[in-house]
Sequence to fold (212 residues):
Amino acid sequence: MTALATQASAATTAPEIHMVALPTGSAGTGSAGTGSADSGSSSGSAGTGSTGGSSAAAIPGVAETAYKVAAVELAVTQPQCHMPWQLLAGIGRVESHHADDGDVDMFGTARRSIYGPALDGTLPGNEVIRNHAGKFLRAEGPMQFMPATWARYAPPGGDPQNIFDASYTAGNYLCSGGLDMHDSAQRTTAILRYNHSMAYVAEVMGWAHRYE
Fold:
């Protein structure tokens, strides 16, 4: 997927930018030992996932494929994790509505770059985070990663705006430390790395169960 993301980046010029601004979470928030607990971005959806209904048919095809491919890859790289694709789908739904309802190019890269709001403290619950130049940071991509977390868990050459790269990286992040998603307590610990909020855990798991 990394090669595809690289090709897509080379083929894309002056991409549009899409801001996601509802307060949910971003990879790096409240994490243990990642060096990227400097987050707290806003992103995601207005939905709750608590309603019953259809399964994977509600997910854009490219997004569903990305989540399933990531789960297969993680079964090889982190076999102890038992990562279900539905969990990745739950996070993708909350963080970016599956990359703006699958609005990606043929390589899986967002046609309009997805960013959370600047972490300048203006939104409730958000931290104030700047880079070395003093600029406010933003989470980015379909799975809303902070730069430091992405650098640690992404595949070499990965693009946070690519739904395949982002889905794998999200799973790699959740699985880190030997966590097993078959264990409910460990799964909760993993999701809290994204956003240290039990309401966020419930929302993600609500969508994950809906996609089963």
